[in-house]
Amino acid sequence: MWPMTRLSPTSAGLIGLTARHSAPNYAPLPVVLSFGEGPWAFDVDGNRYLDCISAYSSLNQGHRHPRIIEALVEQAGKLTLTSRAVHNDSMGPFLEQLTGIAGMEAALPMNTGAEAVETAIKLARKWGYRVKGVPAGEARIIVCRNNFHGRTTTIVGFSTEAQYRADFGPFTPGFDSVDFDDADALRQAITPDTVAFLVEPIQAEAGIIVPQRGYLTEARRICREQNVLLMLDEIQTGLGRTGRLFAYEHDEAAAPDVLILGKALGGGVYPVSAVLASRELMSLFVPGDHGSTFGGNALASAVGSASLAVIIDEQLAERASRLGRKLRDGIESIGSDRLAAIRGRGLLLGLELERSSGPAGELALELLERGVLAKDTDRQVLRLAPPLVTEETTIDWLIGVLGDVLA
Ligand SMILES: *Cc1c(COP(=O)(O)O)cnc(C)c1O
User: Fold this and answer.
1) Pick the catalytic residue: 182, 233, 251, 378?
2) How far apart are CA 251 and CA 266, in angstroms?
3) What is the 261 CA–ligand 1 centroid distance (Å)?
4) How far is 116 from 149, CA to CA, in rounded Å?
5) Average pLDDT of the residues of the chain
6) What percent of the chain has pLDDT over 70?
7) Best substitution site from 58, 144, 148, 159 to test ligand 1's pocket, by max atoms within 8 Å of Cβ?
8) Mean local confidence (pLDDT), 3-21
């Protein structure tokens, strides 16, 4: 653990306050942030950090992007929440923009990622019963081992991470696990009752596991042949992070039936998630089937619109591709023997450390001291995911810092 004596009294006081009044369900870095701007975050003592956590890719547009804050403030001055019991004047334009960008016909707005995944699960099951003809109560969904799709009881029930499940059962039935990046395993796991295959294009929480090129294309083909919905969880990989607008675009013809977005859809400002699908699929939901008090609220929709506009207008996907290549090349040229592997796409990188080099959590503390926020994802893997608006010269600086700690 970090010795508390190295923290300022202000930081230590605030960390203690949180510890006394909150649940200890996280193990945060010992830093208390009070200001953010672009790729930078500042702590209560005025120290500056490059934010390579980016709230798990929620901050693709950086902290407090001026256009997103402007949209937030403007909307806050007019109308914030109505519930879906009435219409508001910003949801329609937001969903038109979102579906246009994603090339899907319809979108259902939710708030958090986990809610969007739950929505996709309900949609797939209803499609299974009403369209595919699966007998009542028998629908099955195939998921991948080492997946991360959120923290609800249904979702942790199909996690293969022991800690996510332990003591939280009983769980929702109807899920089957296969190995990630194994199209044959998917083919063999499909039964007449299978309604969907739910998968992340890159398994980020599992340690930035990138599948072989063509895996999603093959999964797409199998799902189409077997009348199974392909549901891609792009909550973390989507919206520019991997160097394409959506990570599935790294493969050919891998467009999903159901696309799940969240995180950066809210521009680092507000929780905004969505499930996208065809009009035909989405029309299976009828009034009363599903809902969310806050989903698609006026403030969320205005923020969502501005968040998308920034990603498109500032060509953040292209930028992630360019900066990602630079960062990766820079790290490779360090030639550190503490590094076992570098994985990832665009600005979603995982540095896997040699066992002898200690856990990635220790490297995270070394980086914190040098002004870089980063966190371990798997025990040996450090995730580096700076905001996509980071300057090229800042990436050079980051490579220098990494050179110092990895030498
Ligand atoms: C973060 C994340 C989720 C869950 O999103 P929340 O907003 O935390 O509920 C689901 N899937 C993936 C791939 C994620 O990275």
Assistant:
1) 233
2) 26
3) 9
4) 10
5) 97
6) 99
7) 148
8) 88
Relative to the CA of 114, which ligand 1 atom is closest? Answer: 9
Spacing, Cα 113 to ligand 1 middle (Å): 5
Beginning with the edge strand found earlier in the chain, give each strand of the sheet holding 194-199 in spatial order. 106-110, 273-277, 258-261, 229-233, 194-199, 140-144, 175-178
Active site residue 182: no
Residue linked to tokens 């997946």: 147
Q: How far is the CA of 161 from the centre of ligand 1 (A)?
A: 15
Task: Establish whether 263 is a catalytic residue.
Answer: yes
- Amino acid sitting at position 115: E
**Which member of 51, 251, 263, 294 is catalytic?**
263
Which residue, judged by its Cα, is nearest atom 11 of ligand 1? Answer: 149
Active site residue 326: no
Q: Is the pLDDT of residue 151 over 70?
A: yes
Cα–Cα distance between 363 and 385 in angstroms, integer? Answer: 15
Q: How far is CA 219 from CA 102, 172, 234, 245, in A?
A: 19, 25, 16, 20
114 lines ligand 1 (CB under 6 A): yes
pLDDT tens by residue, 191-239: 999 999 999 999 999 999 999 999 999 999 999 999 999 999 999 999 9
Output the pLDDT for position 378.
87
pLDDT of residue 208: 98
Which positions ≥6 away from 326 have C-beta within 8 Å? Answer: 392, 395, 399
For residue 170, list its beta bridge partners: none
User: Which ligand 1 atom sits nearest the alpha carbon of residue 200?
Assistant: 13
**Is the confidence at residue 4, as pLDDT, over 50?**
no
126 lines ligand 1 (CB under 6 A): no
